[in-house]
Amino acid sequence: MFVDKVEVTIRAGKGGDGKLSFRHEKFVERGGPDGGDGGNGGDVYAEASNNQNTLASFRYKKLVAANPGDNGEKRKKHGRAGQNLVVKLPVGTVITTADGNVIADLTYNGQKELIAKGGKGGFGNAHFTSSTRQAPRIAEFGEPGEEFAAVFELKMIADIGLIGLPNAGKSTLLAKISNARPEIADYPFTTLKPNLGVVDIDKDTTVLFADIPGLIEGASQGKGLGDEFLRHVERTKLLVHLVDAYQDNIAQAYQTIIDELAAYSPKLAKKPQIVVINKIEGLDQEIIGDHINTIKKSAKRGTKILAISAHSGQGVQQLLFEIKKYLQKVAEKQAKTKRPEDELPVIKLPKLEADWRVVKRKNEFVVIGRKIERFASRTDFDSSAGVQRLRDIMRKMGIMNELERRQIKPGQKIIVDQNSLEY
Ligand SMILES: Nc1nc2c(ncn2[C@@H]2O[C@H](COP(=O)(O)OP(=O)(O)OP(=O)(O)O)[C@@H](O)[C@H]2O)c(=O)[nH]1
Ligand SMILES: [Mg+2]
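^ inputs. structure came back:
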């Protein structure tokens, strides 16, 4: 797995404030309330896109924010809603909160997830006109948008894993077909850590290859560089198993890798493979044919066996063609069997909107709950009418009853969303 990771702040738009105003008409000293509502703040969405390959653009852009809603205005004019922000991220990005809770796991192109909800616009005073309250001197603040510290983590999962004994030519092949420039040399263990290369098979097919260090007999017991690098190809769709045509014992060279895969994980051993005999540029067809037959005897029935020269490029196009064909087959099968959404561990925000709790703290009572906190965030605590309305809402929600049951005394403080009001 190749990880790219950035920390950002996500901020949805604040809702616009409601307006407190009264109609001015000729000859009328003070008309009815006409303050419009604030517009809702913009939401922040994350969208997975194949056109995005890295998180590099977030290295310096640390704030990801949607626009706020406009404030309400006189003459019942509502504020305009803030524009939503759609953040394009590479497929494979996982978005978590700073403490590691998964918010969205972007696994397929075009997947779009809401990650932060904009604040609701506050009601203007025109909203509160009723027969009993003809001239309300009350307007709400817009609610803040959701905001949190987030981590974008891109786990690049290679489509194809290159495996084989040291010196088989894995890095040479990667260099031939991709943008990667791995180290290549005629001694074992040239590659010490995995290399990743992007391969454009044709104009519609881009494939990610992982070249890992060579395996030797006993790698599962720590011989050579060990086998922990196999972790990097565990989630690939296909393994390309390179065998050096100049090995004294082709069958054994092939079998060593098969055994080491099985020792690492039976699941990995079952992963589909294309076996590729490499370095054939100077060899007779007959010898190449013998090599292919040798491997055919040990390989599972139906295994594709090809011969190439990573150096000269002979047979490489055909290999890429076979890889493309195989990936298409996998994609078609996936499309038939399940929709991508089925396996998404997307965690939605809690739905406990209306729930609340009262906690006693020394001389004061703290009210916790999403809905009531949202009301509080929209309340102007300097306005007695605003505070009274919050009290009314708390009574309606049953919070006042609970406070009374807990023997709250007049003058004691009630804390909601870091604001306080007196009982
Ligand atoms: N003649 C010939 N030599 C090749 C070919 N492909 C690779 N080689 C040579 O084989 C040697 C090993 O190549 P690498 O690409 O480093 O092999 P590797 O499998 O990545 O090796 P490790 O990283 O050590 O596991 C180098 O000297 C290459 O030049 C080929 O098609 N023909
Ligand atoms: Mg190498």
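Residues 243 and 277 are 5 Å apart (CA to CA). Confidence is low (pLDDT under 50) at residues 340-352.
thumbs up if we can close this ticket
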